[in-house]
Amino acid sequence: MLADAGFDVFIANCRGNKYSQGHADATVTTDNVKYWEFSFHEMGVYDNPAIIEMVTNVTGVRRMYYVGHSMGGTSLAIMLSERPEYNERISTAFLLAPALYLGSTLKYLQPFFKSVNYYQYSFNKFVHGKLDAYKSLKQAVGRRPEEVCLREEGACETIEPNGDSVIISSAHFSGFCGNLLFLGGGYDAPQTNYTTFTQALGTFPETTSTKTLTHFFQFIKSNTFCQFNYGFSWINRLKYGKDTSPCYNLDRISAPLVVYWGQNDFFIKWTS
Prior knowledge:
Elements: H1 40-59, E1 64-69, H2 71-82, E2 90-96, H3 116-127, E3 130-132, H4 133-141, H5 145-148, E4 150-152, E5 156-159, E6 165-168, E7 172-173, H6 175-185, H7 194-200, E8 207-209, H8 210-222, H9 233-240, E9 257-260
Parallel strand pairs: 1-2, 2-9
Antiparallel strand pairs: 3-8, 4-7, 5-6
Keywords: Lipid degradation, Lipid metabolism
Pfam families: Abhydrolase_1
InterPro entries: AB_hydrolase_1, AB_hydrolase_fold
């Protein structure tokens, strides 16, 4: 729709997913725990600015519109607060359920995250910083997630990172899988396009770092919007020069924002 309306549309990938697993240092591969030493903080401080500069280099346009869903809103808020010079590069940012302050709506989960850093350190002994949710789900059920959720067969096409085209069965989503999705995002069957969502399951859930997930858990635990807390005061002092992680200063954001939230969304309410 945006392209048909005359916009140049650039669709970015978050670092770590299967379409974006390169590294400036060729010796640091996805099997190396150092590769996964990032969260959405790095996406906001480094990746979003790099994308903006790339778009400017391609189009010659300095100011642009930004659309971000969930973590896409998180990284945008981080960029505008930590790199405030980029506020003037955003004409308007449209944030769809941005994930910033999660503790107010997920207070019932806070007791589970008292030792969230311990969970990450323990988990990393087995996965080395990499959280491959798609692969884990596929191994658990023995089939692709998009195939598990089929009720009637048809065909659709997905494109692999190497450019290969893969035809998978598709057509109608099963009610069981639909209800599982609604548990996470809230019930909204009338506005759910099950056919296209079957295609989306070819890339969802995707690979990310355990640090990214832990950082979100910290948001829930503290109901603050702060940088990653390493769980030990001496590590925080090495990283930040203080015992605790600094919080993002949203007062630095001056770009126009339009914020959307879903009435049935369990995670992001208007109070968030």
